[in-house]
Amino acid sequence: MPNRTQAPDLLTDPLAEANQPSSLLARFGPDKALQLDSGAVLEHWQIAYQTYGSLNEARSNAVLVCHALTGDQYVASRNPVTGKGGWWTAMIGPGKPIDTDRFFIICANVLGGCMGTTGPASTNPETGKPWGLSFPMVTIRDMVRAQAHLVDSLGIDSLFCVAGGSMGGMQVLQWAASYPTRVFSALPLATAAKHSAQNIAFHEVGRQAVMADPDWRQGRYLDEGTRPSKGLSVARMGAHITYLSEPALHRKFGRKLQERSAPTFTFDADFQVESYLRYQGISFVERFDANSYLYVTRAMDYFDLGADHDGVLAKAFAGTRTRFCVASFTSDWLFPTSDSRAIVHALNAAGASVSFVELESDKGHDAFLLEEPNLFATTRGFIGAAARARGI
Amino acid sequence: MALAETQTNRIDLRLVAEMVTPGSRVLDVGCGDGELLSLLAETRGVDGRGIELSPEGVAGCVARGLSVIQGDADTDLADYPDDSFDYVILSQTIQATRNPRHVLEHMLRIGRRAIVSFPNFGHWRMRAQVFFMGRMPVTDSLPYTWWETPNIHFCTIRDFVALCDTVGAEKERAVALDVSGGRVGVSAPWWFWNLFGAQAVFLLKRG
Which residue, A4, A6, A172, B92, has fewest beta-carbon neighbours within 10 Å? Predict the structure, then answer.
């Protein structure tokens, strides 16, 4: 493995993307003010998105893909900041399980994100300065509200499918709960109806790492010309471990040394796994805003769909006509199968049409993003059957 | 589509389907690749759900457009509310459960009716293999040797009738099929069914 401690070259300034994204952009004004769960209202806000494929005449073939914590709208096309391909091209594209030849796929950057949808790195129109910590706290439900405005503006009444993994899966569940008549089918993968104590704990470690960096400047680093790169990098390194599994780490790295035959008796990255994590951290800070990381992790922590419905998750789905397909992975310890089963139990109790499968994989939580033939087969089957039922 | 027009050559599945009232809510426990649920959806217009242990089976069902949950009859039936289905079906699966009695009790609790079909271990050919060869029976429809079979709780028709009595299930209908799928004499006594029925289908309700 090459020694990768240099950050990759970037094609555009990621902070420029926060206000002027390279993607499609929908702007909203006071007539579409965004009411947030915190009580705050965003009068001027924007949502950055990408689309793939074409909307049919009946406007019945739209698929909304919701991205995970550090994802973006470039689900199936080149990311303008990193130059890398889309983050879910294994799943989405011509002839893929979510087929761009058949469906009109929409993917939007989440509220609170840093790739063009309004978030803490965006400019506050009232002050002309970055929002920073004056940005209101957002929730998963707020993200979904913002997406619903976008879907309205595209002239789409009902989505054929809402799909996503991890935090994307939380948005899928929220969509089904908030807009049951607008979601024909739902594909929540490797996700949970509430964030666990362990996951909140991991997020808190990440946030504290960011805030402990003196360059964070109480959140005002954009005004003061610094970047809390060290803190955000450590946050990413810790989080990245939770996306993998012990067997996956062992297979990939074991105890192999990094371009050396013996330990150096220093704190250099002697082990390949250290070098790998350092690279993950360094490359992440170049493309992601630290305050955005704080806000979006917080939104996940606050997510508890059952609590929003008198503590009974089944009530969130009462009377739903949406077809659900839930999937988890055996080695995912961040969003374990028990989380998915809790969703399935609630859907069953609500009399919903639901399928569930636990897929065998040793790749941990990240499995939903990777080459997993069983996931593709299940998705293809589910989407195909739903399309027949919808007459697409 | 009427039952007579369907393609399935599984006579036991058609027999189960005949017992199901059109338009009802059905849970198929151990639904395999979804053949019975598809038959019920096509010919009976049921609102069907399934539970299946194997991921391959679930994937096959999902591709057919069925709503199927990967799960285990022995542990997962406890999560279903009382009276949530009109029929709970256990098709050729009871012999593979760890605790057939608990499974049957849950079925009678969850469904207003339960339908159970199973291979009869009391059939004369089974008895002959044990009696003359002194070996656990291996047949075309039950091809496993004793040490690799998933079928850990075989029973005879009379054994099953006794279990129904134990759990207080009322037998609304019972049909035995011979090896070629013909019905064993309707008015024949239990001992006759137990000897000549290769498989049996029971429609039960809470007693």
Answer: A6
Contact at 8 Å (CB) between A192 and A339?
Answer: yes
- Domain segments of chain A as ranges: 14-195+305-390, 200-296
Q: What is the pLDDT of residue A2?
A: 42
Q: Determine the Cα–Cα distance for residues B28 and A129; give it in Å rounded to an integer.
A: 60
pLDDT (0 to 100) of residue A4 = 47
For A188-226, b/e burial (b = at least 16 CB within 10 A) is bbbbbbbbeeebeebbeebbebbeebebbbebebbeeee
C-beta atoms of B69 and A356 within 8 A: yes
Tell me how far apart the alpha carbons of residues B4 and B21 are, in angstroms, rounded to a whole number.
16
Q: What's the whole-number mean pLDDT along residues A132-140?
A: 98
pLDDT of residue A11: 57
- Position A117 scores a pLDDT of 98
Q: For B139, list phi and psi in degrees, rounded to 5.
A: -130, 175
Q: Which CATH class is domain A200-296?
A: mainly alpha
Mean pLDDT (whole number) for A380-385: 94
B86 Cβ under 8 Å from any chain A Cβ: no
d(CA A326, CA B198) in angstroms, rounded, equals 39
State the count of interchain CB pairs (< 8 A) between A and B: 59
| Closest CB to B69 among A344, A351, A360 | A344
Distance from CA of A384 to the nearest CA of B (A): 7
| Section A151-177 average pLDDT | 98
**Domain B3-121+152-206 adopts which CATH fold?**
Rossmann fold (3.40.50)
Quick check: A111 pLDDT over 60?
Answer: yes
Q: Where are the beta strands (DSSP E) in chain A?
A: 24-28, 34-35, 41-42, 45-52, 62-66, 92-93, 98-99, 104-108, 123-124, 129-130, 159-165, 183-189, 323-329, 353-359
Please give the pLDDT value at position A44.
Answer: 97
Q: Is the pLDDT of residue B102 over 50?
A: yes
Which residues in chain B have Cβ-Cβ distances shorter than 8 Å to A386?
65
Could you tell me how many residues make up chain A?
A: 392
**Superfamily covering domain A14-195+305-390:** Alpha/Beta hydrolase fold, catalytic domain (3.40.50.1820)
**Residue A130 pLDDT > 60, yes or no?**
yes
Helices (H) then strands (E): counts for chain A: 12, 14
